[in-house]
Amino acid sequence: MNSSLLLSAATFIYALASVFYIGSFSFKKQTFARLGFWVIVIGLVANTGGILLRWVESYHMGYGHAPFSNMYESLVFFSWTIAALYVFVELKYKESIIGVFVSPLIFLSIAYASFDPSITSKITPLIPALKSNWLIAHVITCFLGYAGFALAFGFSFMYFIKPKDPGTKSLFAKLPDWDTIDELTYQMIVFGFLFLTIGIITGAVWANSAWGKYWSWDPKETWSLITWFIYAIFLHLRLMRGWYGKDLAIVSIIGFLGVLFTYFGVNFLLSGLHSYG
Amino acid sequence: MKQKDSFADQIWTFFASVKLTVYTLVLLAATSIIGTVILQNGSPEAYIRLYGPGLYNMIQVLDLDKMYQAWWFLLLMVVLCVNIVVCSIDRLSATWKIIFPKNILVNPRRFEKAKNRQQFDSHLPMDRVARHAKQVLAGRAGKVIEKTDDAGLILYAEKGRWSRLGVYVVHASVLMLLAGALIGSALGFKANLRLDEGQTADTVFDSHTRLPIKLPFTVRCNDFQVKFYDTGAPDEFKSSLTILENNQESFTEDILVNHPLRYKGINIFQASYGASTPDEALFEITDSETGTIETHTIKNGGVVSLSAGAGNFIFEGFVPHYDFNGHNLGGAFIGRLDTTNGRNVQIILPTKFPTFDKMRKGRFTVEVKSWDQAYYTGLQVTKDPGVPFVYTGFLLMIIGCWVTFFVSHQSVCIGLEQVGSGSTRVWVAGRANRNVQSTNLTVKKLVKELKGVSGK
Q1: Which of A211, B202, B376, B419 suits a disulfide with B276, CB 3.0-4.6 Å?
Q2: What is the rounded distance in angstroms from the CA atom of residue B346 to the CA atom of residue A174?
Q3: 3-state percent helix, strand, coil for chain A, nearest multiple of 5
Q4: Do B28 and A229 touch (CB under 8 A)?
Q5: CATH number, domain containing residue B133
Q6: A interface mutation test: which of B22, B40, B169, B380 has the most A CBs within 10 A?
Q7: For chain A, how many structural domains are there in total?
Q8: Residue of A128, A190, A217 lying closest to B68 (CB–CB)
Q9: How far, in Å, are A21, A46, A85, B295, B300 from residue A41 at the CA level?
Q10: Are A20 and A122 in a shared domain?
Q11: Where is the domain boundary, B54, B82, B99?
Q12: Rounded CA separation B286/B280 (Å)
């Protein structure tokens, strides 16, 4: 048993969970969604095991570092944070159908890590800049933030497929009511915003101890700030201007595009200090 | 005192609007993209090559080559700050009265429409229910306020009133951050310093203006070490630095990436390194005519005679990056063969290719056998008196966000009314300014506990 095997298993388990959730949605069978939930929980266990094992393996190789040091590891962890947050939300809100829009995201992230040939899964030693206790705090908080936004994105998506007044026979009849969708989206964004804030701050404090400047307008920093601005706009519109529904969902989706660009776009299209993932 | 629609009033209203906040944030987000797409702090040649002279003109006019310091970008930040200050003043006076009321008014009517309101009848007399209710309410919701009205007894408790201040803390933190940034850019600097092993310096050069800056102490690099993993990737850079004051050694400290030296408000960071000229090296000189092989340890600049009086070999120095037909061969020793027949050849000995000199096919072949590699260390020296303000801002922002989003002002009310003889009608309801779920839960738990003591 090694970490790659466990993480590949997690990829397929998450794929199965997505199939169950989408099946539950398409055939309106609650049982499938319940199955999907437990499959996600199993996937999360495999995912957790894979991350921990990879951590241990890095010690066996003599490098000894937390598995947050490159694109592969961050994608695997991204899946983990979305899955963990989703499990928490489903348990708390008891709405299983919302998994249909989130489970594919969990699967896509880890599948991208495994199947893109340009992303290496090799365990490599830590470069000097990453050798810091801030690494773990920075990565965990940033990805919890991203996960909150990913869930908010999945929920906002419902505004665009659910008809205004779905009949009882409609495919969309089982989706949660508008108030619940609105509340869920807001809660996820608040969660994401708090953690993105802490993520940016830990990054700044770390940069100050590694490079002597807490802010250098590096593309990664700038894009995380842009994302932060977008969600700050979301919060002001909702809390102070009374926006809701579809209009606000558009802001949430733009925000998630910001997250995706901060995460992937900056690394692939722009150059900067933050080249490790 | 207030005139209707005076100019000052209009300005105040303009800056007190959340619409302005949203527009400013949209502009800040949108314009920030520019600096990640257009090269920043480049040379004019670079811009002309990338964008052409026409676009370069526009870039210059709008300061897009250093857009995060451009007047219009700073203006947006100033607008945001004024907006925050005016909004806060505008709203705080009202919030203040809510946060610190002279006396808390208990109004059971406000709980009539609460969605979480529950009502049930207890078969216990009212005074007994009241005693239990006071106990559980105090345990779950805070200090209990009692009120008797015509309908019966009202018990009221609340917590988290102060949490309404959270949002002001968040906004104050933004001002604090920007104040820190301003202090840093006015009173701080960022400079580079290159020190060979053994070298000292008390002056650094600003990385933007290139102007010299005198440090309040002298710094000496005793030693630089670089470690590699077996994969060849760098593992650790370490400089041993000694701080000298009045020609006296103050202290010595090792710095690594992520472990800077901080002294008297100056921070010294490990930034880069490179190979510098070794003091001495062991050379092997082969005479292909006689077959003799001689080894010599030669000091930098030193001279040795070749075998059979054929001339001299001079160790002239070391270059960190030797360029060979456009390829960077890395560090290389430079020497010169001064032979008696008047031939004078420069010898290049790249450290990565020990037998490089054989390609020259001369009578004498020189090879470097061993040397103590010397390094220079590239240090970044910074001073930023704004950092304490920025860090305070960071702390306030996290606390403020937490309070704003996750702590709410919750109030719970229990109404007791005598019905018939020895029975009591009880209702429980709660309100919150946000996160109503948690209040709903409190109400549910209270109802459960009250029903429990009533034996129902």
Answers
A1: B376
A2: 84
A3: 75, 0, 25
A4: yes
A5: 3.30.530.20
A6: B22
A7: 2
A8: A217
A9: 13, 9, 11, 70, 67
A10: yes
A11: B99
A12: 19
Residues A166 and A113 in one domain: no
Do A174 and A45 belong together in one domain? Answer: no
Residues of A within an 8 Å Cβ radius of B: 63, 124-125, 127-129, 131-132, 190, 193-194, 197-198, 201, 204-206, 208-215, 217, 219, 222-223, 225-226, 229-230, 232-233, 236-237, 240-241, 266, 270
Contacts with B405 from chain A: Cβ below 8 Å: 190, 193-194
Closest residue of chain B to A207, computed from CA coordinates? B258
Average pLDDT in the A251-269 region? 93
Task: Determine the 3-state secondary structure of B334 from DSSP.
Answer: strand
Q: Are residues B262 and B383 in the same domain?
A: yes
Tell me which amino acid residue A171 is: L
For residue A129, give the nearest of B21, B68, B257 by CB distance: B257
Q: Do both A148 and A60 map to the same domain?
A: no
Look at residues A126, A153, A175 and tell me which one is the last residue of a structural domain. Answer: A126
Same domain for B248 and B382: yes
Position B456 pLDDT exceeds 50:
no
Is position B344 within any domain?
A: yes
Same domain, B229 and B292: no
Say if B166 falls within a structural domain.
Answer: no
Same domain flag for A97 and A136: no
Specify the higher pLDDT residue, A77 or B285.
A77
With cut-offs at 50, 70 and 90, classify the pLDDT of residue A107. very high
Beta bridge partners of B155: B146, B414
Per-residue pLDDT reduced to its tens digit, B6-56 = 898 899 999 999 999 999 999 999 999 999 989 888 888 889 998 988 899
Chain B: closest CA distance from residue A254 (Å): 12
pLDDT band at A40 (very low <50, low <70, confident <90, very high): very high
CB contact under 8 A, B258 and A236: no
Cross-chain residue pair B32–A222, CB shorter than 8 Å: yes
Q: How many domains does chain B have?
A: 4
Same domain (yes/no): A70, A205: no
Residues in chain B closer than 8 A to A217 (CB atoms):
35, 40, 68
Q: Which of B21, B387, B402 sits opposite A194 (nearest CB)?
A: B402
Domain termination site, one of B99, B129, B144 = B99
Same domain, B330 and B418: no
pLDDT at B234 over 90: no
Domain end position, chosen among A126, A157, A189: A126
Per-residue confidence (pLDDT) for residue A91, from 0 to 100: 92
Q: Is there a single domain that holds both residue B184 and residue B263?
A: yes
Same domain? For A121 and A133 the reply is: no
The predicted pLDDT at position A242 comes to 84
Q: Write out the two tokens for A32.
A: 């499938």
> Is the pLDDT confidence value at B246 over 60?
yes
DSSP, residue by residue, A49-78: HHHHHHHHHHHHTT----S-SSHHHHHHHH
* Owning domain of residue A246: 129-277
The residue whose two tokens read 């207030």 is B2
| Nearest-10 Cα torsion for B269, B270, B271, B272 | 160
**Domain that includes residue B390, residue range:** 175-274+376-399
Confidence band for B454, pLDDT divided at 50, 70 and 90:
low
Give me chain B's average pLDDT, please: 88
* pLDDT band (50, 70, 90) for residue B375: confident
pLDDT tens for A120-158 read 888 888 888 888 999 999 999 999 999 999 999 999 988
Q: How far is CA B169 from CA A214, B96, B218, B403, B406, in A?
A: 21, 13, 42, 9, 14
The reported pLDDT for the residue numbered B139 is: 86
Rounded mean pLDDT, B139-165: 88
State whether B190 and B257 are in the same domain.
yes
Phi-psi region of B368 (alpha: psi -120 to 50; beta: other; left: phi over 0): beta
